[in-house]
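User: Quick sanity check before I run a bigger batch. Here is a single chain. Can you write out its predicted 3D structure?
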Amino acid sequence: MQAKISMTAVYIGVMTGTSLDGLDLVAASFQPLQLHATLTVPFDDDLRDELLALTLPADNEIDRMGIAHVALGKMIGNAVNQLIEDNHLDRTQIKAIGSHGQTIRHRPENAFSLQIGDPNTITELTGIPVIHDFRMRDLAAGGQGAPLVPAFHQALFQHESIHRVILNLGGIANVSMLPAGNPDAVYGFDTGPANILMDAWCHRYTGQPYDENGNWAAYGQPIRPLLDRLQEHEFFAKEPPKSTGREDFNLEWLDEQLADWRSDLSYDELEDTPENIQATLMKLTTRAIKKAIYRSKELMPTGEVYVCGGGAYNNHLLEQLRWRLRKHEWTVQTTDVLGLAPTWVEATAFAWLAMRYCEHLSGNLPAVTGAQGFRVLGSITHP
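Assistant: Done. Predicted structure follows.
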């Protein structure tokens, strides 16, 4: 029996984040927001490894990219069909798929951002139009092409009388600043690494894909000289609008910083434990977030922080944030409280961006990305 949803258009959003922990899919309708179905599909190890490898320069990239592009398109197309079939959705009501794809290079300084996951393959497998390549239109208009989710956060979460910050903790952390009752003053930016370094470091030393609840980091103590060195990365000194990715923050970069620190006169061997380094990486994340929130204290002196993304389940990190933001009485909770589970926020944002495209409405916020104006984002591939 097919689940009939009143004649509202349904959009499927598909997201794979920087952390590559899986493919998240939602089927959603808007006004009001309703999630009809959700699904997470884990990556095949070989495809995940290849997508990770493609984020950094290497040999024979174009052939390898082409093969991965089609393979990821097949994975997304099959996952969309599974979402529809498992939940008995009516295909005739599904207007479009918003597929972000996997970012393999984000170079706003050169006005390009490249996501792969072939939309032709997705359309061929599903028979549904695919909206894709969301970032380049903003970049062409002089923007960073990122972050794109703040427009969705504003549409969904802005409050008339309470200042809110939506904090997305994926591979990279970004904030959407939503001043109460003031849609024109919304802005947002990437604050720096979140799970990208913590997950990689955790995997190297424990074999686990991530530090569950932040328990491992909680055993450690941040190393002050190392933290200061990591914070010298030029990204932290940039003023918004700004965006970053795996090109800037990766294990190779971290290893270089560790080597420099170990050869420094202030180096103390007793501090050099894997869990202390994990605690330092967490502090690198939380300190940048605190700085981001406090830099707007004139506009938003206090309010509510709502966390989404995989990092929303890192209890130790959330506790650290509460502690850091206590002075100005910011509360820190997950987006569950607002009616949307942290896992599904980004995929829902790309369903929303697909809807905006189909309705010929803008999907970017120039105050966030630095673009010259509002733009309809994406391109369409028809069945």
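The chain has 14 helices and 13 strands.

User: Great, the batch can go ahead then.
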